Amino acid sequence: MSPTSKVLTAYYSYADYLTWPEDERWELIDGVSYNMTPSPTPKHQEILGELFRILANWLTGNRCRVYMAPFDVRLGESEQPDSVIDKVVQPDISVVCDPRKIDERGCLGTPDMIIEILSPSTFKKDLGIKLGLYENSGVKEYWVVHPLDETVLVFRLQNGQYGKPTVYSAPDEVPVELFEDFIIPLESVFRRI
Questions:
Q1: CA gap 18, 86 in Å, rounded
Q2: Can you give the residue ranges of every domain in the chain?
Q3: Which of 92, 141, 146, 172 places its Cα 20 to 30 Å from the Cα of 131?
C-alpha cells in the first residue's frame, strides 16, 4: 500500500517502498516519502535526453556508466538490509563509476555525479533537502539544471562540503571535473527545436 493511503508523516524504509505500486514514483529521504508527480514537461525531457546522450557517448568504453530516471539510487551501505535503508532517490541522471554499486534494483551506494532538472514541484527539494542529502552522502558533483533560466548550478565536493556553486549559462561549456578534458556545451543542452 502506497503512502497516499497512509499517514504521510510515517517513517518508511526501502522494504516498504518495494511494496508500493510500480506505476507510482516515490522517493524516500530520511524515511519521509515524496511523491514524484506530476510528469516532467517536454522541455525537461529534451534537456534530460540531451545530457544523457552527451554523457553516454563520452563514457562509451569507460568503466563509469550513466543512468536516467526512473532509476533507484539507494543511499545506503551494501550490508544494510532493505528495512534499514531510508534514503531512495530517483535523480534525473546518475553517473556511477564503481560497477559493484549496480544491481538488478538500481544503485546501492553513492553515485559519483548526479544531475537534477528543476521543475516547479521539485525546486525546493532539489535545492534544499537533496542538496544536503547529496553533500552528506559524498556525491562528488551535483548539477542543478534550471530549464526556464537555461542555467546550470554546479556543486563540487571539496573537503566534504559543496560551498557556493559555479553558475553556467549558454554559450558556456561546463567542465565535468570527474573526467579530464570532458566538457558539456550548454548551447547543445538548451538548443531550440
A1: 12
A2: 39-189
A3: 172
C-alpha to C-alpha distance for 130 and 136, rounded to whole angstroms? 10
Q: Which residues have C-beta within 8 Å of that of residue 79, sequence separation ≥ 6?
A: none
pLDDT single digits (tens) 92-116? 999 999 999 999 999 999 999 999 9
Strands (E), 37-84: 65-68, 73-74
Say whether pTM exceeds 0.70: yes
CB crowding 142-162: b at 16 or more within 10 Å, else e: bbbbbbeebbbbbbbbeeeeb
Residue from 147, 149, 189 nearest 172 by CA: 189
In this prediction, the residues of the chain whose per-residue pLDDT falls under 50 are 5-7, 193
Which strands make up the sheet holding 106-108, listed edge to edge?
A: 32-35, 26-29, 88-89, 73-74, 106-108, 102-103
Instruction: Say what the pLDDT of residue 2 is.
Output: 54
> For residue 1, what pLDDT is reported?
53
List the grid coordinates of 75. 543511499
What is the CA angle 82-88-92, rounded to 5?
A: 145
Burial class (CB in 10 A: 0-12, 13-18, 19+), 115: buried
pLDDT of residue 192: 60
